[in-house]
Amino acid sequence: MADTIDALKAAKTADAVNVGRRALSLCLLLAAAAFPQGFVETFSKSFAGRGGAGPGAVIGIAVFFGVVIGLSVFFYIGSRHSHEKIQEKLSAELFGEGCERTRLTRDEMNALLGIVAFAPDPPTKGHLIFESLQLYERCVDAYVEHTPRLRASSGRGGGVEEQDDLLLRLRKKMGYAILAPEQPVVSTRNLSVGQKISVFVPGQRNESFSANVTHVGEFWFTVRLQEDFMGLVSLGGMEKTLAFLRQGDAAYSVTVRVKEISQSGEMIFFHSISLSRNQHRQYMRLDIDLAVKYRVIERVGGFDERPSNELLSAHTADISGGGVCLIVKEPLRVGDVIMLSVYIPGCAINDVRSKILKVIAVEGRMATHYRHLVQFISIEPQQREKIVKYIFDKHRASLQKR
What is the torsional sign of CA 191, 192, 193, 196? Predict the structure, then answer.
């Protein structure tokens, strides 16, 4: 692949050089033929006051600059067209490699080609469908919107069912069936079966109905209300607002159109990519036991009480880019400031100034231990990035084992 890219770049450079040389030669020849006398002599006389330039010189100058501008435009258009052709060829090669890597069948690849056709620049950037969930969901949504025969059908048999199964297989092979914890929800197609949601009528948030997601397809999804759904139906309207909380991520809301309501209390909705995300937690947490060393540097309470600066050992219950949950035998006080060192595999995060936010006593069989919610108040960006990267890597590894 690298050899192909280098060869194409070299060919492009050679073509540009040749075109530039031919353009320059043609420009000089046309300009020379247009001047009735030498360019330098005419130009000098015109600006030195020794005589005005004749009509032939003026015409020659106009022709000269006209040719230069015309050739520049021609060269730019040709170069741009050549660049687009190269990018299109590279994208096609990368798209083919992506299909082979994900082991797509002929039907799945044809479906993906139909989806890629809705990308902003499909000939030159279609391969990015393998790298961007946002692009994939945007294209799938447009693809479904432009298949009215399938979308408008009220049944689940025949072509709709086959197409839905095909797109679901494609989603799994593309790696978009299960989102990593750090990946925000992009579409209602990212909902999971069993997800708890609240159903509202737009503009009437005081009336909410609890429900669970029971089916997620590519054309629509289904929720089952946990209570009398006739109250929701009576409020009318073909649009409902759904709200749900994704653990460790954020709170989401989205307005979706109702496809149908069954007598058993299920509501079927068309999908939407217009989700509103309200930040719930800035950093993803990871439940893990890590070794920790700390010393108290500031105490709250009595002014005569000074920290001992003794280096103590503890371990974590979880960690995030914003802090840790410490497990210690002797409780600290809320507001105490500690200097913390956490040892993650491959490196140590040393001397992080942190503050105790909350202390929780946990009764055990043999003894009581204390959970301390600790916030980093002074941490280097590089240290935080190491923690966040470690958490993301652990989450990805756990997803791959599913």
Answer: negative
Separation CA 70–CA 80 (nearest Å)? 15
Q: In CATH, what number does 188-279 get?
A: 2.30.110.10
**CA–CA dist 233, 216 (Å, integer):** 22
SS3 345: coil
Spatial distance between the Cα atoms of 391 and 323, rounded to a whole number of angstroms: 12
The CA distance from 19 to 135, in Å, is 37
pLDDT (0 to 100) of residue 248: 64
CB of 130 within 8 A of CB of 102?
A: yes
The CA distance from 304 to 296, in Å, is 15
Pick the CATH number of 286-400 from 2.40.10.220, 2.40.480.10, 1.25.40.20, 2.50.20.10: 2.40.10.220
pLDDT band at 138 (very low <50, low <70, confident <90, very high): very high
pLDDT at 161: 86
- pLDDT of residue 291 exceeding 70, the answer is yes
Write out the two tokens for 332.
């600290």
Determine contact, residues 184/210, Cβ cutoff 8 Å: no
Burial pattern 11-48, b for ≥16 Cβ within 10 A else e, equals: eeeeeeeebeeebeeebeebbeebbeeeeeebeebbee
Q: CATH 2.40.10.220 residue ranges in the chain?
A: 286-400
Contact present, 322 and 342 (Cβ < 8 Å) = no
Q: What are the φ/ψ torsions at residue 37 (nearest 5 degrees)?
A: -145, 180
| Helix (H) / strand (E) containing 33 | helix 2-34
Residue 80 has pLDDT above 90, yes or no: no
Q: What is the band of 330 on the pLDDT scale with cuts at 50, 70, 90?
A: confident
Average pLDDT, the chain: 78
Does the pLDDT value for residue 363 go beyond 80?
no
Using pLDDT thresholds of 50, 70 and 90, give the confidence band for residue 58. low
The pTM is what?
0.55
